[in-house]
Design brief:
With about 100 residues, the protein is of the alpha+beta class. About 30% of the residues lie in helices and about 30% in strands. It has helices spanning about 5-15, 15-20, 65, 85-95, and strands at about 30, 35-45, 50-55, 70-80. It has a four-stranded antiparallel β-sheet with strand order 1-2-3-4, with helices on one face.
């Protein structure tokens, strides 16, 4: 993804801690900037995990990414009974793939 990869990593780093904890109270778009958004896609079948996804925004400033706006570029399942810190969620997002 080139420049997009750098922007994605920067996006993950600037997500406020408050957006990455207490996931039970979150739904839909949790956080966004011009290029990416962090969405809560609900819970997995059986309600065992929260389904977090980072997707490319339609209004991205990077032309080659605009062609695939809406595409999921990172995907993380956070177990409902896990008491993850914001940094643990952020680390999973850094390591994740789509």
């Amino acid at each position: 993804m080139g420049k997009g990869s750098d922007l994605l990593e920067a996006f993950i780093e600037k997500i406020p801690d408050s957006k990455l904890i207490d996931l039970r109270s979150k739904s839909g778009k949790i956080y966004s900037d011009n290029d990416f958004r962090l969405d809560m896609q609900g819970m997995t079948t059986g309600s065992e995990s929260f389904n977090l996804q980072i997707q490319i925004n339609k209004q991205t400033t990077i032309s080659y990414m605009r062609k695939v706006s809406g595409k999921t570029v990172r995907h993380v399942l956070v177990p409902i009974d896990a008491d993850w810190t914001a940094e643990e969620v952020r680390a999973k997002l850094r390591a994740a793939t789509a």
